[in-house]
Amino acid sequence: MPSLLYIAADLLAIGVLVLGLYRSRHGRKDLVVSFLGANVGVLAVAAALAGVSTTASLGVGLGLFGVLSIIRLRSTELEQHDVAYFFSSLALGLIAGLGVQPAWLAAALMALPVLVLAVVDHPRFMGGARRQRIVVDRAVTGEQELTDHLWDLLGAEPQRMTVVETDQIRDLTVVDVTYRVPRAGQRSTHRRPDAGPVAPAVLPAPAPAGTTPSPVTVATR
């Protein structure tokens, strides 16, 4: 059975992972409860089985890991980052419950998912990357035409585009698109290659003194 040190290490790690990282970055209370409950549940079951043979406890622990994963992933639709936090929560409980030896190895394995998620889930890590599922109100069969339409719609260059459905009866196109938005305080400079340069503004000559200036005409494209 794992010592109180392992249990304390698990509670510290899951607290940092869920209450420190996930709650501040995503803030879903239902998933916070789910992550904490799954972690403590796996810890308790793995600790109870620690007195059995190592092979049996490991097999039951991995089986419990898989069953909980299936139940969680089939219950509600989760974002991919939620899946990462859920699996990390299960892993922390399993490592602590099995009492992995030596203690430094268990501490390193428990710190690993916390550190990885702290880095890759940081807002500055690929902060401009966005993904949307867009329904276009017409059936577009040409890839270049669809790319140009998305470029104009999003104001940014589509980096990856996957057509989910093209319905010529209902006249619509469903597409998953990945693109990158400019950073805060910056204006997007993306333009379609065939859009051409912006026409310069045409300003009238200064009006003579004492006369009423004519309206300014700006040529736009």
From TrEMBL:
<feature type="region of interest" description="Disordered">
    <location>
        <begin position="183"/>
        <end position="221"/>
    </location>
</feature>
<keyword id="KW-0472">Membrane</keyword>
<keyword id="KW-0812">Transmembrane</keyword>
<feature type="transmembrane region" description="Helical">
    <location>
        <begin position="31"/>
        <end position="49"/>
    </location>
</feature>
<protein>
    <submittedName>
        <fullName>Uncharacterized protein DUF4956</fullName>
    </submittedName>
</protein>
<feature type="transmembrane region" description="Helical">
    <location>
        <begin position="83"/>
        <end position="100"/>
    </location>
</feature>
<feature type="compositionally biased region" description="Low complexity">
    <location>
        <begin position="195"/>
        <end position="221"/>
    </location>
</feature>
<feature type="transmembrane region" description="Helical">
    <location>
        <begin position="6"/>
        <end position="24"/>
    </location>
</feature>
<dbReference type="InterPro" id="IPR032531">
    <property type="entry name" value="DUF4956"/>
</dbReference>
<dbReference type="Pfam" id="PF16316">
    <property type="entry name" value="DUF4956"/>
</dbReference>
<feature type="transmembrane region" description="Helical">
    <location>
        <begin position="55"/>
        <end position="71"/>
    </location>
</feature>
<keyword id="KW-1133">Transmembrane helix</keyword>
